[in-house]
Amino acid sequence: MESCSRIANLVPLLLLIFITQCTARRAASPTEPCRFPAIFNFGDSNSDTGGFSAAFGQAAPPAGETFFGRPAGRYSDGRLIIDFIAQGLGEPYLSAYLDAVGSNFSHGANFATAASTIRPQNITLNRGGFSPISLNVQWNQFYQFQSRTQYFRSQGGVYEELLPKAEYFSEALYTFDIGQNDLTAGYFLNLSTNEVRSYVPDLMDQFRTIIKNIYGGGGRNFWIHNTGPVGCLPYVMDRLLIKASQVDRAGCAGPFNEVAQFFNQALKEAVAQLRKELPLAALTYVDVYSLKYDLISNAEKHGFREPLRACCGHGGKYNFNSHVGCGGKIKVKGKEILVGKSCKDPSVAINWDGVHYTEAANKWVFDRIVDGSFSYPPVPLKMACRRVE
Fold this sequence. Notes:
The protein is α/β, with parallel strands linked by helices. Helix content is 40%, strand content 8%. The chain has 14 helices and eight strands. A six-stranded mixed sheet has the order 2-1-3-4-5-8. The protein starts with a helix and ends in a 13-residue tail after the last strand.
């Protein structure tokens, strides 16, 4: 009887210890890194890992020379920010959804294609230069992917190895980097700055719709990049003329960067509104614009050179020629000669081909966004499943 009494006296103490340990574990959990078993990416050439190349033709050498040693579907000499994101989360590089050869979708898929826009463009790729695979098309591809993969995965065998588990769609990180082409498309159609600004609200409406669609399908974790300083890109400065008074201290085209900042403010507000409307979502807005502009305007300080000059190209003030680009050849006396050559050291170049960034620049940006210093709310990449009010 006495031993039973002692055990009975110990029960409240054991219960208290158990509750304390459980409470401690729950309190600690918000500081534990998130587990993202998959990544699903949407965007344009800033994060395209092979979609455009699969649909319309591979980016020519010397693309991919720095890391892959060959063209790898990326418009860069090597890896993109999305590659470093995948690597930072311990995941393999994303296969492009449109690439039927050698792809593995077990840990996500990339729906981005170069030249894509948020809003569909009413012009063909050949005439306008913009991809028909706009953000709404990318979402439709994702929707089909999500619904069909589980049927095929249930068949077992190779399908089980190459396709994501059902629960990965709610646990995944959904990444976005798109909008740059929506702005330049307007200017290339000779629209005024006010006219380009006027359709930004429509871009935000369409962007919010896609986020809500993914949320409705179970997506919860969103990592959203704003757009970069388009007025610092050689292909913009070469094609769109401005007054000398409109050139800023970094040598960039001020009016186009102002429109990019206008877009970014609208995007930031759209993300804030989505937080209110989607109570279970963790949405992180990432300011890559500030980092890219800092890198360009303070290139030497950060170990780079000639920030406004393309590493790979041919001729002109910015080593950019819209007719003979990176990897381009010309005929001399009936013989093809490569003139769109890479620079000697891409590791100190910021711009790769007049439009896109080098691997070195992409890595520099990633290293500064990964800890949440440029995120709103200030959430590190590995904590991007945490909803912060």
